[in-house]
Design goal:
Oligomer: single chain
Strand content: 5-15%
Largest sheet: 5 strands, mixed, barrel
Distance between the termini: 31 Å
Number of helices: 15
Radius of gyration: 23 Å
Strand order of the largest sheet: 1-3-4-6-5
Helix content: 55-70%
Length: about 425
Amino acid sequence: MVKNYLTKPFFLACIICIVVFYSGIIKISNRFKLKSLLPESEISSLSGYLISTPVKSSSGKTYSAKLKVSLVENKNGAKCTSNSCVNIFIPSSLVEVYFPGKLYTASNKGSFLYEAGGFYSFSGKFVNQGFLVDSCNYSFWKNNFTGKIDYFRALCRLQFKRIMYSWKEGGGLLLALLSGAKEYTEDATKESFKNAGLSHILALSGMHLSMFSSIAVFFGEKLKNKKLTYLLRIIMLLIFVWFAGFSPSLLRAFICSMLFIIASMSSSAKPDMILILCFSFLIQLIISPSDLLNTGFLLSYGALAGILLTGNFFRQFTDIFLPKHISTSFSSSLGAQVITAPISLNFFGAFSPIGIIATTIVSPLITVFIYSGLILIIVTLMFPGFSTYSGIFVNFLYTVIKTIVNFFSHFPRVTI
């Protein structure tokens, strides 16, 4: 199959970029490094807009985000403007001050709502990875259309967390699957997903976008309007990524989805997903070159590339002893492992072969879980008194999923 693409410009361009960048021939510049007249060692304050949603670190002590810096200041009061992006680390006690179920009282260090789009003035110091925040001096949201939309999104995400918190452990998993926020997902559950080779399910990616796209297709087909179906799909994708916020894997899924929709709208032959994946890779390389070194980026592209390049090959064998639907899922999971296994071994020193089988079984359950959750969220917003019963059903599904994932998590892993 690969030989058929050796004459395709996008495919060749991807191969060249992979060789050039991952071999170290060309170093990827750090776009998230401060450019200022003041030395980093002297800077005690940064001011600017958050351009990414804060994400909790594995240690749980801080949240990481990207700040578009406009002003820097040192302890002596010297100030200068800047136009650069910086990785910042905000203490959990600041970010979670308004989160349901959290007991922090950090008003003396800045009780603000920390979300993308807000303007913040942070005090702290630079460390090796970025700027470590000590406190927030002040915050505001732009008083214009985009500022109001950003603030509305921040409030929606906070309210969504409150609803999911009321649904306990099941709500915590649903929150992670719909918004990427894993604050309320049990640590033991996250570890079980990891050990079972199912971490990709918790990471927002193509699976989540395809589900929302399917909802749009369902309503579009009911209306029997093809153009309206395409419009609904685009709207649904935009709403999801607007609410969830971009991550490297979700950006990949979004670009691929939009390219596929555009290709389908052009009434051309069946879109070639391999070329779409290559074009998406090149676009993301231009938009965010630092993603090239991100593990989620590598696993996301590697998994889809493995499915597209080897999935049909494996299906020739799985069709012999498995039903068609299961064979398709199993061969796709096997194809994804072909490329992602070496990546996992390189970054984590281990991978879980049982993930091939676990994905085939757990993915359909996660689909049911998400669709059920969406329906129950709508019902709960319309009839708040139904929230308790919704939580009971969500936690029933959660218990089923958790039990199966725990079972697969005990299988041996390949380590180096």
